[in-house]
Write a structure and sequence with these properties.
about 250 residues, elongated, single chain, mainly beta, 17 strands, five-stranded mixed sheet, about 35% strand
């Protein structure tokens, strides 16, 4: 999932009136993947006593996060995390800047490419579309996944190791379940099959890496009998597929 990605981060402590003035940050990530992985990393940070460092870490939406922490000056926590190298991967994926306090007169940077759509949460139901050609959607047709401009199917994306709500990141293992027209699971799963083979739908519960859903699927115009077809079929193409996104 390529492309620079921005997040506003706001300090929020309901019983402290300075929450309206201090603790505003603009986080610039190398991709949405990096932002979601950073969020999961921040959730896991502990104090020396084993308590959560962030007492509040709420995703209002994918690009607006609210937080509080146990630090004495919590409005600096995201800066301290970077200075202390608590999450070393951030050295190569994150650049942050402290935004103006409420009573300052400086310019306010506006995110120029806000993300449209919901957060990618385990157990959520989503359409899957092509990132560069967003009119192309996954559609279940019988036992195949085809690419369509006028039809689309919702899919439930479920982390196989985690039942509670949390944001999904690349390394998570997930299942992909087509939903019927009422939004209910059909009891089937999307199966990758071999490299270069068409995706299929059936009762076999196959586990995917969440990242494979985005860059491990391509398309073919070859029909079931091996001849050229008017239908685009989704195929398994690890690491060389098109870019897809949930919406």
């Amino acid at each position: 999932m390529s492309g620079i990605y921005y997040v506003y981060m706001k300090w929020t402590r309901e019983n402290n009136p300075t929450r309206t003035d201090w603790g505003r940050h603009l986080l610039t990530f190398e991709s949405r993947w990096a932002a979601d992985e950073a969020f999961r990393g921040l959730q896991g940070l502990k104090t020396a006593a084993g308590a959560k460092r962030f007492t509040t870490l709420k995703r209002v939406n994918p690009q607006f996060w609210c937080y509080d922490s146990v630090d004495g000056d919590p409005w600096w926590t995201i800066v301290y995390v970077q200075r202390e190298n608590k999450l070393p991967e951030l050295n190569y994926t994150l650049m942050s800047v402290i935004l103006a306090d409420a009573n300052a007169g400086r310019d306010w940077p506006v995110i120029s490419n806000p993300t449209i759509g919901r957060d990618w949460i385990t157990g959520g139901s989503y359409y899957i579309r092509n990132r560069r050609q967003p009119n192309l959607y996954w559609y279940r047709e019988g036992v195949r996944i085809v690419i369509s401009t006028n039809r689309r199917t919702q899919f439930r994306i479920k982390d196989v190791d985690f039942d509670d709500e949390r944001v999904l990141i690349k390394k998570d293992e997930v299942t992909i379940e087509p939903l019927n027209s009422l939004g209910h699971p059909t009891g089937d799963y999307v199966v990758k099959n071999g490299d270069g083979q068409k995706l299929s739908v059936g009762a076999t519960r196959q586990v995917w890496d969440f990242s494979d859903l985005f860059d491990g699927v391509g398309v073919t115009w070859t029909g079931e009998d091996g001849s050229s077809s008017d239908i685009q079929f989704a195929t398994s193409l690890p690491d060389v597929g098109d870019e897809w996104e949930l919406c």
